[in-house]
Amino acid sequence: MADQRRAPYLEALRAYARRDPGRFHVPGHVGGPGADPGLVEAIGAAAFEIDIPALTHGIDAGAAPTPFQMAQELAAEAWGAKRTWFLINGASQGNHAACLSLAQGGDRVVVQRNVHSSTIDGLVLSGMRPTFAAPALDAELGIAHCLEPAELERALDQTPNAVGAIVVSPTYFGAVADVRALAEVAHGHRVPLVVDEAWGAHLAFHDALPEDALSAGADLVISSTHKLAGSLTQSAMLHIGHGADGLLDEHIVDRAVTLVESTSPSALLSGSLDGARRQAATLGRELLEETIEALGRARSAICELPGLDVLDERLIGRPGVHDYDPLRLAVDVRGTGVSGYALAEVMRDQDDINLELAGENVIVAVFGMGRGTAERADRLVAGLAHAIEHFGAVPAEERQTLGEPPPWGPLEMSPREAFLGGQEVVPLEDAVGRIAAESLAAYPPGIPNVLPGERLTAETLDYIQETLKHGGTLRGASDRSLRTARVAVEA
Q: Is the pLDDT of residue 85 over 60?
């Protein structure tokens, strides 16, 4: 077993900087002297000293295994993968690479409807045509949970030539899918299961947490390490499982990763992944223990505030909720008579508290696996109390609520055909019946209402506009006000 206390790539970067070598290569700041002094002061001289280019001898070039290779091998061992790739374009790069890898086997794929927008971009890049599988929708909370195994079975039965299935777990709100059952369904159809586990990089490091996707039998797992596991923003990992042989070729995955990666990868991002892996592997259990305990106390305190409740393990057993991740502190605000949008705005303006997500019924605060969780949680609870005090008693019956989103329109073109084909921008009232050339996703609940290639319906456009009136947001549209829409030019 390798020594997880080491960080070979990060250590090699630091050793290079300490040598004060002659730098006659990019980047142009040459270790700091060529950089703006204000920028050096802001992020520190040491960051510039280890910002070196790819193919530097003794770091990621030279005798194998290089420090970079050793770092990825340590990450694979820590997360239980057959092989791990460091990603410097976030989990988005992992989703792109996953789609490109699957497309080697064919052009049909089953995709959970509320996948991240980068997966839809991966469909555009790969040219695959999706069959969408609907996640369970929690009508009470107005949010989407995970995909049920029966729904995956239905979608794969409908798509006999599918080359894979792509699902999401955990969700933004902390729901965790029955990945083990989803893997059994996928493997029963002889296709690999790809899990976007962007929100679950920490799950492998404490036995009180839900089972991680690799342990549950997933074949390819996208891990957004920066979200909760402590690496720098835009850094992530892609893991291939030990059971993926015969379903996925790791050499094809490797080529796909390279295809959507800069040829000038950031040493800072990769170094941060090496350091985050070391901390997770050696201190993860201890840090997570502190976080889980502190958030348990915070949940109890929030439930004492008027009109508030929390999402927790009580959700387990609802459709699409096999388990629950406690590192997402999701607060049910329905009892306040005030929307989550309004509460979040007041918390930001009054106490400079910035939440990960605000919806009509639920707000979400994210906690990583670091120190100081108790102090941060106390500040959140105080901010919530302050916001509720600001609004006072608001009769719940005065509040307008959103109905369920209408069914999405038929897929008339592949996302690639719609995105790359002829397009025009039309007034919204003229877009009904046209084929969308862009995504339209109203938050909440975050399930895309429209994807490139789908026929636009009046009901869908009305629903999105109503969501915006309630304070929701719209993602994917070139015109965020939704006065116009981008549509395909049909022959």
A: yes
The 10 Å Cβ neighbour count of residue 313 is 12
289-306 core/surface letters (b: 16 or more CB in 10 A; e: else): ebbbebbeebbebbeebe
Q: Residue 285 in contact with residue 245, Cβ under 8 Å?
A: no
Q: What is the DSSP letter of 455?
A: B
**For the residues 72-77, what does the mean pLDDT come to?**
98
In this prediction, residue 446 carries a pLDDT of: 59
Angstrom distance (rounded) from CA 303 to CA 35: 50
Using alpha carbons, select from 344, 335, 343 the residue that is nearest to residue 309: 335
- Whether the per-residue pLDDT at 303 is higher than 90: the answer is yes
CA–CA distance, 5 with 284 (Å, rounded to integer): 12
Gap between the Cα atoms of 129 and 417, Å rounded: 10
Q: What is the DSSP string of 104-142?
A: TS-SEEEEETT--HHHHHHHHHH--EEEEEPPPEETTTT
Helical axes 90-102 vs 250-259, angle rounded to 10°: 130
Distance CA 237, CA 241 (A): 13
Beta carbons within 10 angstroms of residue 261's beta carbon: 17
**Residue ranges of the alpha helices (H) in 103-242?**
117-126, 149-158, 179-188, 225-228
Q: Which residue intervals of 325-481 are DSSP H helices?
A: 340-351, 373-391, 415-420, 458-469
Distance CA 85, CA 68 (A): 10
User: Over the stretch 397-425, which tens digit does the pLDDT of each residue have?
Assistant: 555 566 677 888 889 999 999 999 999 99
Q: What is the pTM of this model?
A: 0.94
In whole angstroms, give the CA distance from residue 380 to residue 388.
Answer: 12
